[in-house]
Amino acid sequence: MKLKALLIASTASLLLSAGTSFAGPEVVSGPGAEPGCFAPWSADTKYMQWPKKDGPYKVAIVNGFVGNTWRIQMIKTAKAYAQDPAVKDKIAEFKVVSTGTDAPAQLGAIEDFINQGYDAIVTIAVAPDGFDRVIRLADKNNVVLVPFDNVLDTDKVMQVNENQLEMGRMWGQFALGELHAKGVKEGKILEVRGLPGNSVDRDRSIGINEVFTKDGGKWEMVSVVGNWDDGTTQKVVADAIAVHGQFNAVVGQGGSNGVIQALKDAGHPWVPIAGESENGFRKAIAEHSADGLKGISIGQSPGLVAIAMKAAISALEGNVMPQLISVPLPVATYKELKDGENYWSNLPDNFFTVNEFPPCGVNISGPAIMAQDESDTN
């Protein structure tokens, strides 16, 4: 009986210690730290607080796909921000890896950094699900895991993003509004999608198609996959024009410079185009808006990585944080573009123009970003 009692007590002790080892964040009451910067997604967003750790911290960026200019600039921005005087002294070690589109490889890299004792891991998720195991491991080790851009379908981690569904709606509404203004209520719309399998691509596409479906016009939606890459997008748009002829409008998630070049090469008339915040796209809108290129540029900034890093450090410092942080959508239409203000004629076409976040005290200059490279750090 004594042995049985001892075994029961030992088992209970193990269960208790196992339960307490899974610390992770607590759900607490708001408001959170720096609400002007770390704005909650909605009134229903919960707040989280991690145990305070003393710095400086070991921070890792675990990227997935790296085959387009946005991802390359994002990595460069992360490296530039890690050297910013505002955070440099708070970071003891900083690593960057890109694992490609293979989800197990990304999960393995995150797990490896956790096991190495890193304090925070910022990631662009390859897929919106399948991260439960690494989330539990991060919680067990009090590691702050922060997905951004391509976020996860979970409320168990702090995440940073712009409203992708709303971005898709705004693109669709702009194109539809320009068509209605010309009296056009039917025709072909070319949708250029992003990288398959990502929550960003999914949510943007839902928003775009929702708008055209609700309109009730006789719209034929033609969809191609551009991977948010200029070269890929140029090819698939050129192929779509060759097969389908002229389009009434183009709504593209990214690779916007490729859209412009494909239309030029095909001699396609300028039409309303909704796209991302590439500098070249904004240059083209400014140059050709009077010729029919009525464009809207909404930026999913590579600078989101800096906000995610700042949020991770704030959480490590023990601050209360929103579970889902909303970064405002930076929008410019053909009526609002100004050289030197929201696009730059002296910067490369593939530079993404939105990297300033005044409420967060984050402003990474173009030269500081371009001085970095996109390679992994060892």
Automatic annotation (TrEMBL):
Pfam families in the cross-refs: Peripla_BP_4
Main location: other
Domain Periplasmic binding protein: 59-318
Signal peptide from the UniProt entry: 1-23
Entry keyword Transmembrane helix: no
Protein localization: Cell envelope
InterPro entries, sorted: Peripla_BP_I, SBP_2_dom
Residue stretches spanning the membrane: none
Keyword Signal set for record: yes
SUPFAM superfamilies: Periplasmic binding protein-like I
UniProt keyword list: Signal
Domain of life, per lineage: Bacteria
Family: Belongs to the bacterial solute-binding protein 2 family.
Protein name stated in the entry: Ribose ABC transporter substrate-binding protein
Organism name: Rhizobium wuzhouense
